[in-house]
Amino acid sequence: MPLRSPTSSPDLPMPVKRRVPQANPGTPGRTRPVHPALAPARRALLCGLLAAAPLGVLTGPEACAQDAAAAVDPEAERLWNDFSHYVLIARPGLAATAADALLKLDDAAVLAAVEADDRSSRRVFERAAGMGDTAPVAARLEEKIASAARAQARDPERIRAEVDGLGNSQRAFATGVDRLTAAGAYAAPELLSRLRDPQASDLHPYILEAMQAIGQPLVAPLSVALPELPPVPQGQVARVLAEIGYPEALPALQATALAPDGDGDARRRAARAFASIAASAGVSTSTLPAPLYTGLGNAAYALGARGEMPPGFDPVSGTGAVWVWSDPVGLVPIEVPGPLYADALARAAATLALGIDATHTPALTLFLSADLRSGITARQQLGGAADPSRDDDLKPADYYLSLAGPERARDVLRRALQDGDAGLALAAIDGFAGTSDAGSLAPLADALDAPDRRVRFAAASALAAARPTEGFSGDRAVVPTLAAAVRRDGQRYAVVIASDEGVRSTLADAASSAGYEPLLGGSLAEVQPQVEQVPGVDLILARGSADDISGLASATRGLPVLGGAPIVAYASAADQVALEGRFGPSSRVTSVVGDIDSDSMQAAGRAAIERSGGEPVAGPEAEAQALEALRLIRELALDGSTVLDADAALPAVTAALEDGREAVATAAGEAAATLDDRSAQSALADAALRASGAVQVAHLHALAASAVRHGNLLSADFGDRLLDLVKNSDGDTALAASRAHGALTLPTEHAVELILAASR
User: Could you tell me which residue, 128 or 35, shows the higher pLDDT?
Assistant: First the structure.
């Protein structure tokens, strides 16, 4: 269940307890390479002076006086003054030269020069961003300064000094809070270290007040630490979390309040803090920790599904921090690459939930989904780089999916289909291997309507392999979906639907120009007979109102061949708004406003496919799919399945008999031989006579097998044509032709005729 407050983002970095290498308590970040990550509202640098976007250091009267007075490198100061001056007087060439020189200097020296300047660096960089060729080098300089300021603000020695100085004076406290706020979450380890130190008890009231002042950035690390603290600081931190008031702390507070072996007073303080935040967040005080952790993890996971970064992500380094606790070090941040960050938080939350309640299956589903998605992302975007926050003792993600069984695979698949996540859907479908339970097969049937062609094929393959003995919703789409993979490499079809003939013609021309073979109709009913004769449909182009398009999407859902094809709808601006409101980002519907031409159609088609997470299937992958589909079609026919009708693949199988890929043509012949249909045997016979070489031999053997299985279904004149081949061939071809002749029980006098001719 997502947790949110009226004034906060719904999600914060998720706590996790895990073992990490030991380190010096004074330098917790040295156990792993880390980078600071602040919540969006706290993206401040040194003394709170970094603008949130674009990044830049604000200087001038707001700067810390004592820092500005620090020694400044004369060369850095001169170059910074030159850069600022030339930007402000619009001399881009000279400004770029100065910026290039600054990029070669030490980061800290450049930062000191910027901080010592009375001019606003933000204004300088805003001007530089509009100066053409100067903008890129200025952007690199801005990033250099921002990174240096962040590193300085989060330096452990600096943070330790600020914490120790909080009680020196009112001014020291205010300055320390400013600097600790700039450090954000990275101030937490030292704040907690001193709070746990009985020798620093005089400092504790200042630390607690500083924690409250820093606020939201501390919620994640304090939530990690809370269950691990001694009783007194545990109660103090619980109260701090209550004062900060963000509901992301609720799981840790409730876990602490209900800990059976916890200190009584600390538990009561945690319970009061939980009740305070729960009341404002609308969460029942009876909600248990496991569902709370799962809800928080689901919120992070949902952000990742939308392509958004959870709070705690640092756009400068491209990483987010996952906080862990390790005795005796305490809090340790683990740097996670941005693409993996949401899943790392979700997995950590699920792990905590399962640690509290091993029977909480929603947490297991969340763990499996996040772990699988993280692995897919790492392979696709990061070259296989591992998530550093994932425990080294964990086995590969698909191991746990297989171990969990088809029910959890079903849940993961449903989540993937809801999010339009093709990669996760494919991984989940692999988890159905060997299952034939009707309830478990239901989400596989739903996947037959997925916009991604690979997902549809994988679902159909899994359903065919399961050999269901009872009918289910969507069973009629299984074989046509397999058949859609049996097509020539690069062959693509687009259904074109428009009531106006001129518009229909224009759409058809656009489809042809983009490499699709158009199937035209004024309505779905008109085009349906054509659809039944092709192996698959890759795209639907339609012109109509929002209601027309919505009706088309509904009517095609579950239909063989058409059910999952992405729809590109050409509509008015008003209808586009309506369509975007009805269909979410993972929908198969993409609306287009503008002229109907090949360029716009191609762009819209690409957008539709990209939104669905799919790309055209071609080359070796297309051949492998075709061979697998033909194998399954053949097996279904041989098994005589009463649920999945292999004869529905007839058009695709017969068309593939003359496929240019030898393996596909041969497999098509073997499949055609199993189909109990006159046209299948006739097409196989004709293909056998037209073919040559190994394919002809294979087709003749398949024809013989068809005749043995189904009898001779051919027209009378075929015998003469086959006899001519027997007479005029030799070797394997002659032997295969004679075998087909015999299996078809053609007149025996043909054999006598040949014997006598050879005996003369």
Answer: 128
